[in-house]
Specification:
Length: 195
């Protein structure tokens, strides 16, 4: 029996622009949903306890902008600092690591979040490096000293484990073969007696 060829893996390769954009869109959806639910629940509880009429239209617009910016910094920066990936990145198999490939220092994750906002504030110029750069590094990666890589190996290993057939010890295989041989002649005898 030939050994199975090694499976191709993208583990450790620089993540491309399509995967990074998809992960960002997933993260923005999750982040804004959690923010909206949190603000709604918070406003409901404040209205309930203080008997006021607080809603999203009350308060100056800059305060809401500041609150959303703070939330996004906590969501992205906190996720990167804690595990090197956001929920969207985890879903698509991405991870942020140090430029040399080591685990991400928490301070780099916290610095990377406002640098992400800076990439947007430069009208997208900060993202050009993802498309044309060899390491696919955006402005936030350069400022924080990070790279985004594929981190699929653990997930694919789990899936391979679930998909493979269970192997029996050598003694069990011999017993299974002898029982199959014992059953087979008996079934042949039953077929010949029915004719």
């Amino acid at each position: 029996m030939k050994p199975a060829p090694p499976e191709a893996t993208r583990l450790g390769q620089y993540a491309g622009p399509a995967t990074r954009v998809a992960a960002y869109l997933v993260d923005m959806g999750i982040s804004l949903l959690v923010f909206a639910v949190s603000v709604s629940v918070g406003a409901f509880l404040i209205n309930l306890m203080l008997q006021t009429d607080l809603n999203r239209q009350s308060g100056p617009g800059w305060a809401w902008t500041l609150l959303i910016a703070l939330w996004e910094w906590l969501y992205f920066g906190g996720s990167w600092a804690a595990s090197g990936k956001t929920p969207g990145m985890a879903l698509l198999g991405l991870r942020v690591v140090d430029r040399d490939g080591g685990p991400l220092d928490p301070w780099r994750g916290i610095v990377r979040a406002p640098a992400l906002a800076l990439s947007f504030l430069t009208f997208g110029i900060g993202f050009v490096g993802i498309i044309i750069g060899k390491q696919h590094r955006a402005l936030q990666d350069v400022l924080a000293g990070t790279v985004v890589v594929y981190d699929w190996d653990a997930r694919t290993a789990r899936l391979r484990f679930l998909a493979r057939r269970p192997t029996l010890p050598e003694s069990s295989r011999a017993q299974e073969q002898s029982s199959q041989e014992a059953i087979e002649p008996r079934s042949n005898r039953e077929e010949s007696s029915q004719c």
